[in-house]
Design a protein that fits this description.
It contains 14 helices and 29 strands. By secondary structure, it is α/β, with parallel strands linked by helices. The protein has 2 domains: 278 residues, 4-Layer Sandwich (Purple Acid Phosphatase, chain A, domain 2); 231 residues, 5'-Nucleotidase, C-terminal domain (5'-nucleotidase,  domain 2). Strands 1-15-14-2-3-4-5 form a 7-stranded mixed β-sheet, covered by helices on one side. Helix 9 crosses helix 11 and helix 11 crosses helix 14. The radius of gyration is 24 Å and the shape is globular. The termini are far apart. The N terminus is likely disordered.
Length: 555
């Protein structure tokens, strides 16, 4: 269906409000506006909120106002829901092609299907993928050979350079083994040395190269985020240590930033913006004919009918399977607190208890651990479908059981709880989050937040060691009679988790990677949940899961 121009009166009713607007400017010759539309952390939410159909409609609306419209994505688009998992990223890429994305940056979750798969997806994508800070040191051909450090776009007589920047946290927040060769040596890295200095220097060199080519504007497309735990690789850190950049469009931390002015290395003003997650907003950067740059976030209620029909067709291809009822729950299981703050990455939750119990009980292991970052959606009370359970564990990981020492468990808990704070919220946003925070079964412990973390990590944020003073205390293991006894550092326990943690060193937990496996690459993790409900809970998740069960105490 051809997009129809709306009247001014209609636009006044429906149109988008820039929630916050800020600007900086340089003088240049007159011409039409340059508009950069940006998204980040869509996580396969193709029909939620504004959705891709709304994005396509707004894109067409802007193309009626100016010929200079570019659509970019700042990472984590192709993973996070069933359409990504079942197609290993292909459906989301096809939808991005349909809408007409021009540029994209690999987020950490673009790597979740493996390096070879990402290479094929990048080749299939019509958007050019950008990253200036990925380095390949292997002897063969890099799987990321199609990724360019930057792209220069010409709008009339104005040139704008777009520089891609990936988070150095990729190695631990995705799957570390994907960045290794067959010998287990890292062959990909993201310039993480010297406490960020190597990272800043690499980005600055790329910016300088673009400026030397005569571009008028440099825009960084980054997947870095602003979380404290990501320092020194936050977008704010990067701005503060570089110059020559006009704006940074960011992702990774799911932050809603309409516009923030950050001072660069030489005291100049740089605009920082990020759209949150799951297409709650569309970002818009505008360069006016007078040289003023503005950023803001937009809501838009209209849908492009052709795009909407296409998405419905794709979703309909596997919708019936996802609607099959797998069981019933008598309680709401959640990743958030009662006031809606995400806590699954910093506190025990009832859904975390359920997922960890499923791993332990289905496998018969002594202990189970499930990383909070791998638990992605709530389970509401009532009938639970296959789609609901796949949304909880959308990454396609498999159940493994390893023989591990008590000391290794203690080290893993210390690593997982290094960011936990006494309060999980600042009143509005979650604090002290870490995707590697572990939801547990068969074990209890206390986190003493008055003790500063002594965890030492290497340049890739992989675990190295812990100090003698630890913040995780009073660790106890479930016994056959239902009691709990202090963990024995020298004893061998069986530990159930996903292959992500036990085999691939996910979230930097390298201590288990060489341990003997009793179960190697068993059932898919979402299928483990289905098995637990059907064969161990009699088809019903009972009210015993209505609240967290007190396995993790934070003080």
């Amino acid at each position: 269906m051809k997009y129809r121009r709306r009247t001014i009166n209609v636009l006044l009713v429906i149109i988008l409000v820039l929630l916050l607007l800020c600007s900086c400017g340089t003088a240049r010759r007159e011409q039409e506006d340059i508009v950069i539309l940006y998204t980040n952390d869509v996580h396969c939410a193709v029909e939620d909120n504004i959705g891709y159909a709304g994005l396509a409609a707004y894109q067409k609306y802007m193309e009626e106002k100016t010929p200079y419209v570019t659509l970019v994505d700042c990472g984590d688009a192709i993973q996070g829901d069933v359409i990504g998992l079942l197609s290993e990223g292909e459906y989301p890429v096809q939808m991005m092609n349909r809408i007409g994305y021009d540029l994209a940056v690999p987020g950490n979750h673009e790597f979740d299907y493996g390096m070879e798969r990402l290479s094929r997806l990048i080749q299939e994508a019509e958007a050019a993928y950008l990253c200036c800070n990925v380095r390949y040191t292997g002897t063969g051909e890099s799987a990321l050979k199609e990724v360019s450090p930057y792209r220069i776009e010409r709008y009339g007589d104005v040139e704008v350079a777009f520089v891609g920047v990936c988070t150095p946290e990729n190695i631990t927040s995705s799957t570390p083994t994907y960045f290794m060769d067959e010998a287990g040596e890292f062959v990909y890295d993201f310039y993480v040395g010297d406490n960020g200095e190597e990272f800043y220097t690499q980005v600055q060199a790329t910016v300088d190269e673009c400026l030397e080519k005569g571009v008028e504007y440099v825009i960084l497309l980054t997947h870095l985020g602003v979380d404290e735990d990501s320092a020194p690789f936050r977008s704010i850190n990067l701005i503060e240590h570089t110059e020559g950049v006009h704006a940074v469009l960011d992702g990774h931390s799911h932050s809603v930033i309409p516009c923030q002015v950050v001072k660069n290395k030489s005291g100049g003003e740089v605009l920082l913006s990020s759209t949150g997650t799951e297409l709650n907003y569309i970002g818009q950067l505008t360069i006016t004919p007078g040289g003023t740059i503005t950023t803001g976030l937009i809501t838009y209620p209209e849908k492009d009918e052709e795009t909407e029909c296409y998405i419905d067709e794709v979703l309909g291809s596997f919708e019936e399977d996802m609607k099959r009822v797998a069981g019933h729950s008598e309680a709401d299981l959640s990743i958030a607190s009662k006031d809606g703050i995400r806590i699954v990455r910093s506190r025990e939750t009832n859904l975390g208890d359920f997922c960890a119990d499923a791993c332990r009980i289905v496998s018969g292991a002594d202990i189970a651990m499930v990383n909070g970052g791998g638990i992605r959606a709530n389970l509401p009370a009532g009938d639970i479908t296959y789609g609901d359970l796949l949304a909880v564990h959308p990454y396609g990981n498999t159940l493994c059981v390893a023989q591990v020492s008590g000391q290794e468990i203690l080290d893993a808990l210390e690593m997982a709880n290094r960011a936990v704070q006494a309060e999980f919220s600042d009143g509005t946003n979650a604090v002290g989050e870490n995707g590697g925070f572990l939801q547990v079964s068969g074990i209890t412990f206390t986190v003493d937040t008055s003790v500063e973390s002594s965890v030492a990590m290497d340049e890739n944020e992989m675990f190295v060691s812990c100090g003698s003073v630890r913040r995780v205390k009073d660790v106890r293991v479930l016994q056959e009679d239902g009691s709990y006894a202090p963990i024995d550092p020298d004893r061998i326990y069986t530990l159930a988790s996903q292959n992500y943690l036990l085999k691939r060193g996910g979230d930097g937990q390298r201590m288990f990677m060489d341990n003997p496996l009793i179960l190697d690459e068993g059932t898919m993790d979402y299928q483990v949940l289905i098995d637990y409900i059907a064969n161990h809970l009699g088809g019903t998740i009972g009210k015993e899961y209505a609240v967290p069960q007190g396995r993790i105490v934070v003080k």
